[in-house]
Amino acid sequence: MSFEAWAIFALFWVVFVTTPGPNAVNCIANGMHLSFPRAMMGVLAILTQASLFLLLSALGITALIAASPTGFFIAKLIGAGFLIYLGVRGWILAKRPVVVGDRPAKSVYLHALAVATINPKSVAGYLAAFSQFVQPGVPIWEQMAVIVPTALTITALSYTGFTLLGAGLGRAALGAVFNIWVRRVLAACFVIYGVLLGTSATPGRT
């Protein structure tokens, strides 16, 4: 991969992972509600999902998933339902006092992994990356040696930033009313993303 191609890919990935979505909302919520080391388990889960999707994209499996309208539709509905459930649950629980660091690390990790995996933005983004930036005439694993470290580094920095933002909001939310409404805004974001997911088109199709 040439330097120019790498720079374009890196810029694309910065935009891809810094555009707010379910992962960002989850990281902000973790930062607000959990101790920082515990909240970082959510970032680790996103990196796990990113590594898996990069591998699957290299093998062409995500393209296969996106090419199956029925399979993608079912996955879409499951993901939409999960995000809407998180949003409704978050809205209901918003009035309860925040208890910092009460969730086990495994629970934080698996929850974040589920949010990341059912995110249609992931499938679309990885398909876009591989359709636009992978060069057909160059061995795929040579390109992966450049793409993977770049993507994972940018991803880690981005979602660590969202987690720090959440931690800052948590410290700033000294008033009970402010705290409740910040949490309700985050909950509403999950519902909105769920609705958008349920009505989104299959990547590559209209």
From TrEMBL:
<keyword id="KW-0812">Transmembrane</keyword>
<protein>
    <submittedName>
        <fullName>LysE family translocator</fullName>
    </submittedName>
</protein>
<comment type="similarity">
    <text>Belongs to the Rht family.</text>
</comment>
<feature type="transmembrane region" description="Helical">
    <location>
        <begin position="43"/>
        <end position="66"/>
    </location>
</feature>
<keyword id="KW-0472">Membrane</keyword>
<feature type="transmembrane region" description="Helical">
    <location>
        <begin position="73"/>
        <end position="94"/>
    </location>
</feature>
<keyword id="KW-1003">Cell membrane</keyword>
<dbReference type="GO" id="GO:0042970">
    <property type="term" value="F:homoserine transmembrane transporter activity"/>
</dbReference>
<feature type="transmembrane region" description="Helical">
    <location>
        <begin position="181"/>
        <end position="201"/>
    </location>
</feature>
<feature type="transmembrane region" description="Helical">
    <location>
        <begin position="146"/>
        <end position="169"/>
    </location>
</feature>
<keyword id="KW-1133">Transmembrane helix</keyword>
<dbReference type="InterPro" id="IPR001123">
    <property type="entry name" value="LeuE-type"/>
</dbReference>
<dbReference type="Pfam" id="PF01810">
    <property type="entry name" value="LysE"/>
</dbReference>
<dbReference type="GO" id="GO:0005886">
    <property type="term" value="C:plasma membrane"/>
</dbReference>
